[in-house]
C-alpha cells in the first residue's frame, strides 16, 4: 500500500490527513493553537506554532504505517499571511494574518502608486486589508528596523514547506492572494513590484499546484517521522485546495465553504475580473485554471461566536434543532454577519455585525436562525457579484465545512442561493485536496481532474423548496442594512 499526506496549516489548527490508494482517509491528526490580537483590528500568530502543530498532526495521522510508503506531501493553508525571515532564515516578527485589518492606509497607498484600473488588470483584485502586499508596506512604513532585516517573505503554509525542505517556494493559487502576482501570467508581476518598490528577491519561486517544490530534509525527517527525500508538492491556498478536495476542478464547477469564513468559489478557464474588484480573481491549484471567489469573513464563525456568547456548553446540533422551530425568516429578525469587518460585497474593515428587528417574542432559537440566514444572505451577495461578472448556470454547488453538517443550514443555503447543495464523499476539504495534488506529482494520476474524478463522489443533495420567494424578500431587506448602518459603524472607532 502507498499513501499520500495532506497538510492544512489553518488559522486555528494544523491538520493532517493520510489517504490510501483507494482514496480513503486512513489517518488524521490535528494540533490546535491560538492567534493574538495585540491591538484592535490586528491579528498575529507565531509561525513556530505551525511547525509544532505540523509535527504533532503528522505523527497522529501516520499511526503505525510503514513511513516509507508515503509517496508525497501536499500543502495547503490560510492565505494572505505575511511571514518575514532574515538572511539566516529566522522569523523576525509574528506573522500578520489574513483577518488583520490594520492596513487601510497602505491599501490607499497601493491604489495611488499603481492606479486602480492597472492594479485590477494585472492582479485581478483591488487592494484589500487582508492581502499580503499591504502588510509588506505597513511593515516598511511602521517597522523600518525590521524591514531592513527582511530577506524573504513566505505565506503561512510555505513557512512549513521551508521547515520541511529548506525551499523558498509557493504555488500560483496562494501567490495570487498577495496582490503581487500577474494573474494571467501566473508569475510575480515586475510592474507591481517596481511600483511598490518591493525587491523581487524577497519573494519565493512560484510553482503550479501539483509540482514538486522540494524534498524532506534530514533534520525535518527526524522531526516528523518520515524518510528524508519524501517529495513535498506545491499544493494551494486553502480555498483552491478545498475546491480540489470537493471536485470543483473544471470550468463552471461551483464550490461553497462554510467554515470560520465563508466562500463561494467558481472555477474558470481564464481570468475573469469583476469591474469593481469586489470578487476575488485568483489562480486555481489546477494548472491552466483560475477561479472567482466571493469571501465573507465570519460565516460559521458567526454561529460559534453566538454559541460561545449565549450557550457555551450547548452542542451546535442542538442549537440547529431549536432554530428549525423558529421558521424561515426568524419572525422578522435579521443578522448582519460582519463580526470581523467584511470583504464581499462590502470591502470594509470597519463594518460591524448587528441584529435588527429584535422584539420581545424573539428567543434563542430565533437568534440562531437569524445568524444562519444572515450568513446565507452574505454568501448570496458574493454569488450575485460573480453572476454579474459573467458566471452563469449555477444550479449545483458542492458544499463543505463544518457548517454544512447542519441539515437546516443546508436547506437555508439551498433556498437562499436557489441551487442544489451537494455534499461529497470527502469531509477533509483542503487537506484532502492537497493530498490529491501530491498524488498527481507522485504519478498516481495524469491530472488533477483525473484525481478528483477518481476519489470524489457526490453523496447528499439538498434542493430548494417553496421558501425561495420569502428568502428573496428577506435578502432584499438584508441588503438595505449595510448602507443604512455604515455611517454608524464608521463612527464607532
What does this molecule look like?
By secondary structure, this protein is of the alpha+beta class. It has a domain at 3-246: 2-Layer Sandwich (Nucleotidyltransferase, domain 5). It is built from 17 helices and 23 strands. A seven-stranded mixed beta sheet has the order 17-18-16-15-21-22-23, sandwiched between helices. A six-stranded mixed beta sheet has the order 3-2-1-5-14-13. It has a two-stranded antiparallel sheet with strand order 4-7. Strand 15 (254-258) and strand 16 (262-268) form a beta hairpin. Helix 1 (47-62) packs across helix 6 and helix 2 (104-114) crosses helix 3 (116-123).
Q: Which terms would index this structure?
A:
single chain, alpha+beta, Nucleotidyltransferase, domain 5, 7-stranded mixed sheet, 6-stranded mixed sheet
Short note summarizing the structure:
This protein has about 500 residues and is α+β, with helices and mostly antiparallel strands. The protein has 17 helices and 23 strands.
List the helices and strands and how they pair.
Layout: E1 3-9, E2 13-20, E3 25-32, E4 44-45, H1 47-62, E5 70-77, E6 83-85, E7 95-96, H2 104-114, H3 116-123, H4 132-142, H5 144-149, E8 152-154, H6 156-165, E9 169-171, H7 172-176, E10 181-182, E11 187-188, H8 190-196, E12 205-207, E13 212-215, H9 218-224, E14 231-237, H10 238-246, E15 254-258, E16 262-268, E17 280-283, E18 290-296, H11 300-310, H12 316-326, E19 334-336, E20 354-356, H13 364-388, E21 396-400, H14 407-417, E22 420-424, H15 430-441, H16 448-455, E23 458-462, H17 468-490
Helix pairs in contact: 1-6, 2-3, 2-4, 10-15, 11-13, 12-13, 13-14
